[in-house]
């Protein structure tokens, strides 16, 4: 095995630490840990406050000093977006200056366009993982270069297909979890839903499905949209339907392991769905909507998928999901959703592009 020096670029919006803001941060943390465990030198460029047990260099998220005239201009973006732009610009300029002396490869695991737009200025190869459907800034960054030097991966077949027009050769490397941190539970505790409480994740539909099925439900995750939570989620809480808050990984794993089934209710086309992998690893079958990449992960042995947006159909499918084998759910996670598989693929890709 070649020992690689990897510059792993994370999102600047949230620290890469527990409790994770979302699946992107959780996957980045797991990937950095497993690559380091294998002997690679991984430097994580991430938001301030990220896990100090990782080799972290904080992204320079410092507010640019703008004149009053600039701040008053009609083109002035939201200050947070300006900070993010400034951070990635500084990072890419630093890597352009001496990146080849410090690293063998840059792995852009962020959602920002600058690591792609400036890749041709770097003296070392750049790998970018596509975590979302196409965005205008990222598509523009790809097209701005006549021969874009970036090697792209996508987190699912679905996501690779969504990017086909702009990135026709993205390799599929699915996100993964450290299944050792998600032990099998015994079930018996009703239903669970996990994730950010935002409209596109549809927790209000999980509540409706649980109510229709007459089953207890625990929701776990951070409130990402306060207005949505107060208007559509909070009114459905009460009795045996509760919000447990934003849990640390070990606590979430225990909660998942106690559940008979995990509800997964995306209102958009999920590019991957890390919450599915986490539930399956804990032996908990999935009952969710057939959207995005979920059909790639969920097989008839470990879950049941119904029509998107139909909470009544989900309620009817719950008995089937709850009767599925917890062993089969765990086996699916270990063989299809583990971070070791992702690390194998990325290590081979790093060696390929560095050569």
From TrEMBL:
Residues 22-180 form the Glycosyltransferase subfamily 4-like N-terminal domain. Keywords: Glycosyltransferase, Transferase. InterPro entries: Glyco_trans_1, Glyco_trans_4-like_N. It comes from the Bacteria. Pfam families: Glyco_transf_4, Glycos_transf_1. Residues 193-326 form the Glycosyl transferase family domain. This is D-inositol 3-phosphate glycosyltransferase. It comes from Streptomyces zhihengii.
């Amino acid at each position: 095995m070649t020992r690689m020096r990897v510059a792993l670029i994370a999102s600047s919006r949230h620290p890469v630490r527990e409790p994770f803001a979302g699946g992107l941060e959780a996957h980045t943390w797991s990937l950095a840990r497993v690559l380091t465990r294998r002997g690679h030198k991984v430097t994580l460029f991430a938001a301030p406050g990220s896990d100090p047990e990782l080799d972290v260099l904080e992204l320079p998220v410092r507010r640019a000093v703008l004149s009053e005239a600039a701040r008053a201009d009609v083109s002035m973006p939201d200050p947070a977006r300006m900070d993010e732009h400034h951070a990635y610009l500084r990072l890419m300029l630093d890597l352009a200056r001496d990146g080849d002396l410090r690293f063998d490869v840059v792995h852009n695991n962020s959602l920002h366009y600058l690591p792609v737009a400036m890749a041709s200025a770097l003296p070392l190869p750049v790998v970018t993982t596509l975590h979302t459907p196409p965005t205008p800034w990222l598509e523009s960054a790809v097209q701005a270069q006549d021969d874009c030097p970036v090697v792209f991966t996508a987190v699912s077949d679905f996501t690779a297909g969504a990017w086909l027009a702009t990135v026709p050769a993205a390799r599929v490397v699915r996100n993964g979890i450290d299944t050792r941190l998600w032990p099998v539970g015994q079930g018996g505790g009703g239903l669970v839903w996990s994730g950010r409480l935002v409209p596109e994740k549809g927790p209000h539909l999980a509540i409706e499905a649980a109510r229709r099925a007459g089953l207890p439900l625990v929701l776990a995750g951070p409130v990402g949209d306060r207005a949505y939570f107060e208007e559509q989620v909070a009114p459905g809480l009460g009795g045996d339907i509760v919000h447990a808050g934003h849990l640390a990984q070990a606590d979430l794993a225990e909660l998942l392991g106690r559940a008979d089934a995990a509800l997964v209710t995306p209102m958009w086309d999920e590019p991957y769905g890390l919450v599915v992998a986490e539930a399956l690893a804990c032996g908990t079958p999935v009952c969710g909507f057939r959207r995005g990449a979920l059909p790639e992960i969920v097989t008839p042995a470990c879950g049941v998928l119904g029509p998107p947006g139909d909470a009544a159909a989900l309620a009817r499918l719950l008995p089937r999901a709850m009767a599925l084998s917890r062993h089969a759910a765990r086996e699916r996670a270990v063989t299809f959703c583990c971070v070791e598989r992702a690390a194998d693929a990325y290590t081979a890709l790093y060696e390929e592009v560095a050569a």
